[in-house]
Hints:
Structural class: alpha/beta
CATH class of the largest domain: Alpha Beta
CATH superfamily of the largest domain: Metallo-dependent phosphatases
Shape: globular
Oligomer: single chain
Helix content: 25-40%
Number of strands: 19
Number of domains: 3
CATH topology of the largest domain: Purple Acid Phosphatase, chain A, domain 2
Strand content: 15-25%
Order of helices and strands: EEEHEHEHHEEEHHEEEEEEEEEHEHEHH
Amino acid sequence: MRFLHTADWHLGRIFGGFDMLPAQQHALDGLVDIARDAGPQAIVVAGDVYDRAVPPEDAVHLLDDVLARLAEVAPVLLIAGNHDSGRRLEFGRTFLRRAGVHVAGIAGAGVERVDLGDEHGVVAFHLLPYATPEETRYGLGRGDLRSHDDATRARVATCGMSGASRHVLVGHLFVQGGQETKDAERDISVGGISTVDPGVFGHFAYTALGHLHRPHSIGSERIRYSGSLAPYSFSEEDHVKGVSLVEIDAAGGVTLEEISLPQKHGMRTLRGTIEELCARAREDDRRDRDLVRVLATDLVLPPGSGDSLRKLYPHLLEFRRDRPGERTPEGGADGNDRPSPRSEREFLESFFSSRYPGMVDGTVLDFARECLEQAVRREGGEA
C-alpha cells in the first residue's frame, strides 16, 4: 500500500498582514503533481486543513478545487485538526464519500475506519480527528479521562482491529518526543497534559500525524509528522516542507520517502546595521520573492530606516531592533522558558486563590471546572 501523508495546510493563513493563500495554492498545485507522478493508493491529510474555524471564502474554494483534483488520483482521507471546525469540515461528507473523499471532523463515540485494498489484502485506516479531553469524556461517557494521553488511549481502544492485518492511524496530536516550533503551533494543553505517549500506537503499522510543523519521525519511521504545507512563522525558515510517500509491505514493514513541495516564497531573517542591510539588498536577487524579518543592530535607528528597507524588500513582514539578551514576550532571551502547561484544576486553583484567598473549597472548584468543560464543548475545543 502506497499513500501520501500531508497535514497542516492552514488554508486562509494571514502572516504578518501577508495573505498566504497564493503561496498555499502554489504548494498544493505541487502536491497534486506529486500525487499524479507517484500514483498512491490513498492520500492522507492529518488535520488543520484551515487556519481557523470560520475560514475565508477563497480558502474554501481552494480546498474544494484541490480535493476534486486529488480524488481523481486516489481516495482522500481527511481529518479535522485543532484549528478546524469539525462540524463545518464535515459538511457534505455523504456526497464526498461517494466521490472518494472521506472526512472525519467530529470525535464521536468511536473511531471511523476506512478499508482500502492492495495486492496483499486490506489496509484499515482509522481516522482520529482532534478532540479535547473534555469532548472525549462527553463522547465516551468517561469521567475519568483527564489528559490528552488518557483520552487518546480510550479512543484508540474503540478502533475495530479485526478483518485486516495492517492498520494505519491518522491523528492530530502532540506526541511525546515531538519537535515543537516556537510561534508556529497553537497550544493544545487546555484541559490537561497535552502530550501523548507514542506507545499508544504500537498496534499500527504507521501513524500519520498532524499538528507539529517540522517534518520528523518519533522513534522510528512508523510514527511521523509530515510537517506543514508551507512555512508559517520565522521559526520555520530552516524547514524543508514536503509530503511523505509511505509504503507498507505485506508484513507491515514501512519504507518512507520525503518529497519536497514547491514554495512560492522563501523565508529568512536578516541581521545587521541599516547601512549594511541596504548595501546587501542591492545585490540580493531574492529580495522581491522572500518573506523577510529584519533585526537591526544599530544602537540608534536612522530616521526613516523602516521605510527605506520596505522599498528594498517588498515582503518585509517584521522590522525591529536586535537587542541581545533582552527578554521577549515569549519568556527569556531565547523564548524557551515559558511555564509548563497546567491542568484545568491547577489553573482554577491559581485563579481563585489570587482573587478570593481562603474562601474557595473543592465544591466550588469542581463546579467551575464543569462550567469550563461545557464552554470548551460549545466552542468545539478551541478554548
